[in-house]
Amino acid sequence: MATQLRERPDVALPHTTAAGSDLLRDAVLHVREACRILEIDPTTERLLEMPERELTLTLPVEMDDGSVALFQGYRVQHSRLRGPAKGGFRYHPDVTLDEVRGLASLMTWKCALLDLPYGGAKGGVACDPSRMSTRELNTLTRVYARALAPLVGPHVDIPAPDVNTNEQTMAWFLDELERQSGTFQPAVVTGKPLELGGSAGRGEATGRGVAHITRLMLDRLGIPLSEARIVVQGFGKVGYETVVSLVGSGCRIVAVSDVSGGLYNPAGLDIERIDLHLRSQPQRLLGGYSGDDAQIISNEQVLTLPCDALIPAALEGQITSANAHQVQARVIVEGANGPVTSEADRVLAERGIIVVPDILANAGGVVVSYFEWLQGLQGRRWTLEAVRTELDAMLTSAFEHVVARADRSEVSLRQAAFLIAVERVARVARLRGLTPQGV
Fold this sequence. Notes:
The chain is α/β, with parallel strands linked by helices and 439 residues long. The protein is 43% helix and 18% strand. Strands 1, 2, 3, 4, 5, 6 and 7 form a seven-stranded mixed beta sheet that branches.
């Protein structure tokens, strides 16, 4: 197996058009802007930009037909200044090293913003899980786990689910790590099944958190929940749980979409009927749905519908300079990581459209992962009520801090969130003596 390990590589601001490079470029730009406002010295700024460690892997997997396929895998530990690296890994055909670098950076700032004792990491394998059998995915996960075994651990790097990975993926990953070490390690991964030491509320956490932040933002704008028109792009786990939580609060969901297309009804969609349709489909897709006068629309159209809150909860780079002028939402709540590009950010700001950044809006998953990690270390179990109560409290506190910082510094919510996060990580770097101020 070919591996390449590099400590603190020199990462320049990307100018390529490869998948994921825009996400990395934007993450670096947000950090640089925060450093400029905070007047952080160039050495510290560079330290905060650069991944601490990254691993590139070639993963051989025996397929069901007896052939051996080679998959490209990655793990990037962006920072461990504030604690062990934390971040999920995804299975998707478009996974690249630049994408993983950008996502790992966002995890650093997300954990710092929520004041969790973590740094940031991310991983991924370039594959198409929809074309792989359960046995092939199991094998791929175990090969990936064996390759990462020397670099992960409860106090080193703690993986979790992400796009196209789930509780079952984490169960395979955990089992392989424990086989390699010969020890029981429930805190080495999060997002596990309850039977293997997972946490109540982990599966719903990211979507529930997005919904909670959306409610806080609507309240700040003076929009009653019963009158709010919500659009959700992406109806996977995050989008689905977001919708369920918002519907439970009395909100009106006027549009949803997934890879098969979108549904729109300005009077409000029948979410229960849509859910029944999803459960009847092997791949749980919206395609083929009919009912409640829903119009069939494209994913592109979903982003430009008139609404109070638009929640892009699919993949990065969905709202760009090409379509930002057409967005008709009063506020955008980033359910996915990096769905709004930096160019689109500027266009939206000029048009008075508020963006609640991903490092705040979708932090519910890592917060409950933190709770699961604590439970694994302590050998305890929290109730679902306790998880939800603590999650809501932490997200509310972070939201209030970001809003207050935005008002005080006269900056956007994204800039305020990065100011708080970058300041916290830079302070730790100084305390560790890694920067000129700490010498």
